Every structure is written in structure tokens, then in C-alpha cells.
Amino acid sequence: MRKRIIVFIVILIVAIISYMYIYQDHRNIKNEVAQYKLTSNEIALQFSENYKNIETKYLNTTIEVNGKVSENDSNSITLDDKVFCQFNKTIKRTVVYDSKIKIKGRVIGYDDLLQQVKLDQCSINEY
């Protein structure tokens, strides 16, 4: 009987830990402090020179990038044709083509075909 209680407690603890691991809170990039602050040209140059090593440095980190808006739609902005910024929600602010802007987001990789750094969970910091 005592053995069954111990086994039950161990199974319960493992189940609770597994549940907490699987359903952990998602990161809120908007509230995080940016680990790096760069221009779109600086980060694009770093990735174009040696994207394998640079990707390990920046991957899944929060960065702040500033540059000029080269493309935009309701859910994304591209800075200087080098940094693609994906937003979770529709952009509510009016973003003017060729205007300077600061965006914070999480680096998810580098598209070597388009030669663009990809960010997601972005938020606009300044114009």
C-alpha cells in the first residue's frame, strides 16, 4: 500500500512538471529589453558576410532595428529592403514610405535567397 502511494506521488509530480513545461508562458517581446540595437544596414551586413555564425549570435534574441521603411502592409514592414518585420496584429499606426522608424522584434533567421533578416513579434518603438 505504501509503495502505491509513493508511485502515485511520483507520477503526480512528473505530470505537473510536464504540464508546466508544455504550457509555459509565451515571451512578450514588446516588454523585453532589446539585447542589441542596430541599424538595418549593420545587421544585414553582418548576416551577408557570414550568416551561419551570426545567426547563432542573434537567433531568438530581442533586437531593436532602425532604418527607412521600404515596404509595408497591414501586418509587416520591411526596412531598407534588408530587414523584414512581421507583426502579430494589424499595424494601427500610419507608416509612411521612406520614413525612419525603430522596430523591436525577435530574430527568427536569415533568408539568403531574398537576403533579408527576419523578425517576428515586432512592435514599433519610434518614428
UniProtKB/TrEMBL annotation:
The keyword Transmembrane applies. It holds the Pfam family tRNA_anti-like. The chain crosses the membrane at residues 5-23. Keywords: Membrane, Transmembrane, Transmembrane helix. It comes from the Bacteria. InterPro entries: Protein_unknown_function_OB. This is tRNA_anti-like. It comes from Psychroserpens luteus. The lineage of its organism: Bacteria, Pseudomonadati, Bacteroidota, Flavobacteriia, Flavobacteriales.
